[in-house]
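Re: nicotinamide-adenine-dinucleotide structure - here you go.
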Amino acid sequence: MARDFSTVGVVGLGTMGAGIVEVFARNGIDVVAVEISEPALERGRATLAGSTDRAVAKGKLAAADRDALHERVHFAVGLDALHSVDLVIEAVPEHLDLKQRIFAELDRVCRPETILATNTSSLSVTEISVATSRPNQVIGIHFFNPAPVMKLVEVVRTVVTSPEVVADVEALCARLGKVDVTINDRAGFIANALLFGYLNHAVGMFESHYATREDIDAAMKLGCGLPMGPLALMDLIGLDTAYEILDTMYRRGGRDRRHAPVPLLKQMVTAGLLGRKSGRGFYTYERPGSPKVVPDETTPLATDTALADGSRAITKVGIVGSGTMATGIIEVFAKAGYEVVSVTRGVEKSAAVCEAVKTSLNKGVVRGKLAEDDRDAALGRITWSATLDHLADVDLVVEAVIEELSVKKALFASLDEICKPGVVLATTTSSLPVIDVAMATQRPADVVGLHFFNPAPVMPLVEVVRTIRTSPETTATARAVCAALGKTGVVCGDRSGFIVNALLFPYLNDAVKMLEASYSTADDIDHAMKLGCGYPMGPFELLDVVGLDVSLAIQRELYLELREPGFAPAPLLEHLVTAGYLGRKTRRGFRDHSHR
Ligand SMILES: NC(=O)c1ccc[n+]([C@@H]2O[C@H](COP(=O)([O-])OP(=O)(O)OC[C@H]3O[C@@H](n4cnc5c(N)ncnc54)[C@H](O)[C@@H]3O)[C@@H](O)[C@H]2O)c1
């Protein structure tokens, strides 16, 4: 018969512990909530009250239920209060010696049948368990932040955890309305093993001034649909906790350099900049514990001061190319009111692109998103041409031809001859160095990358890539154009993968390596990222949509440019591509799509 958990204990009422208390009490379970001192207990009590008050204010919890919830929680200082609970979840700071001491003490205080669980993110549950005389009753119950919101729980069994304990904890998770994935004891389990390399990489980008905090976060939110950017997430996790998790993962997980905490993290922790909980981390918050970001000295000024930054006025835009991206970009500019000159390699190609743009605009009309007049006006703003000479008087050229350096260089050399001085020359390349293209002209200061996402009319993000020769005016102009298109332009350096692909694809590749190592299944890994981190798609779903061949090519580029051993493409990814399993487009990738 399944165990009845009527009273549970929670040790440590910080970021996670206070949320875990709320999860249990909301589900009708009595909680003994324990801290190390009176002031810490008060903080925990205030966090719980703040969270439940917010839930009431948002209409997600009735006031009477909140009061009942609080009545179920008994607060105490010291572990002795846990003598008669059925389960304890420990959520103290991520230090092995501290956790071992607490488990030894819990072993002494608690009844022999009590299950002892840790919420550790990266430490070995096995090492924690051997500090007790009951390692078979020790288990990992890893909640996600914020615990009341995130659906996922990783249940971590060690080689000695008894199967009954695992089954009882799984049943408890279901009772709490959570979805669990049960896995073995490995550094970072599923979600953090895939998440923290990415977070650390984003901190590295920020540290090296590759892009601003706002731009890094906006890129991942708008480019990948993530609920938060990586730096805002680091602030939520807590930089001290994040540092410890990275450090442990580095030491336990094969000394992968990508987990070696970026030095800036240690400096911020030492300086007391711990993220939301201390009121300041990568961002500044209204007060400690508040989710509200307030402006500080690095907040960019609102960009309504048109042209004050030296950006040039753009009215006429040339777009070169006849593929998917060019077609979408023509539509975007024409809809935004720019005069557009489309240049393709021939009259038939121009006719085809024209047809495609018309079809897409018509769809907008049918869906009620575009008025017929606006469609006609947009089409009226486009001139169709098959010769570059028609670009002599444009203010901006956007190149979206085939992804081959020789072709792009030849094109930019021609543009250099044809275009008037002061024109901004932009390439949409997603993988070639923009500086190579820029140096094909005599005016590299005017060359910039404008990396649109597919489909261009829909995706809200554009990466503005500045090379070491791009002038500030050119960058400012490119950014202003993005804003005029109704898109967010994020500025970054000229490195493989820019921001989004550089942060996204190594994570996808890591997921493939995890699958290859048989640590978990594609379904559970997808679940973990969706329910634990709020990602719109799991890594294997996304790989099948993007295409395994495309993903492999991007990953190879990153590996070749950065020489990071951890970026080496997963052999399984290479094999699937070789076998012709490219994802949805071939009806088979990581999953079989032939029946869908
Ligand atoms: N922050 C996250 O996003 C997150 C997510 C999942 C799991 N975790 C894990 O949860 C655990 C707690 O992390 P956190 O971020 O909540 O840390 P935190 O620093 O916010 O809170 C830790 C709390 O433990 C208390 N504490 C310290 N020593 C104690 C003792 N001897 N007895 C009782 N209480 C004690 C502290 O006073 C503090 O309130 C860590 O193992 C962490 O890896 C964190």
